Amino acid sequence: MSIQALYTAATGMESLQQKLDVIANNLANVNTTAFKQDRANFEDLFYRNEVLPGLQDSAGQLTPTGIAFGTGSRVESTQTDYAQGTFQQTGNQLDVAIQGNGFFQVIDPVSGSTVFTRAGNFSINANGQIVVGSASVGRLLEPQVTIPQDTTAISISPQGQVSVQQANNPQMQVLTTLQLARFINPQGLLKLGDNLYQQTDASGNPTQGQPGTTGFGTLQQNFLESSNVQPVQQLIDLITTQRSFELNSQAINAGDQILQQIANLRRQ
Prior knowledge:
The chain folds into two domains: 3-82 and 229-267, no CATH class; 87-225, no CATH class. Helices cover 24% and strands 33% of the residues. The protein contains two helices and 20 strands. The protein has helices at 3-28, 231-267; strands at residues 38-44, 47-51, 67-70, 73-80, 87-89, 96-99, 104-107, 114-117, 122-124, 130-132, 140-142, 151-156, 161-166, 169-177, 180-182, 190-193, 196-198, 207-209, 218-221, 223-225. Strand 9 (122-124) and strand 10 form a beta hairpin. Helix 1 (3-28) packs antiparallel against helix 2. The two termini are 20 Å apart.
């Protein structure tokens, strides 16, 4: 075993460590509202070609194979699984889940830009505006919705129509209609943390539309979308990744012992 073999096994350990990081993040967010699990994809590194396939032998025949030695692996990408999470009934009239495709649009107060989320745990601020239910940042829902001070009940239809019932008025009054955004390539969205995504050149520009129309999901009031992480599958991946990591570690230990033995023989 050559020194190159040690580096090759080391690349395997490094890429597997990165996969462990992905699995650990998935498991850490098993209870995060509307969290979407990630998957690490691997690719092999370049090859050291000693003999190219298709060379002519002494009889003029083309050889069917060559001799090539790989130099390891690396993480090619991490992809997000946007599969629907299960719904959790909360009974909170400002909890809204998206059934199907789409993201809520919220305004980041620091940058003033629009960011996107699947988490519909909303609250009302001191000005009566609907905001993301965060204890650190007050992000306004876009388009903005202001709830009257004398509101006694709020209704959000599957098609996004927001209606309120006010004191001394039994009739529901329509305020506005919520809008969702979708992307041609949601895999290209930049994850910001806080359940937020940001558009990039890879994701393309958002397309806005009313819930329930073509290409957009519907809304479910009084529900929240749970994380789509499957703990059992993640634990299986964790075990297999750990075993693969140990195999690469053993390859390094074996290679180191062989190199030491070769060095001892040369000193004799």
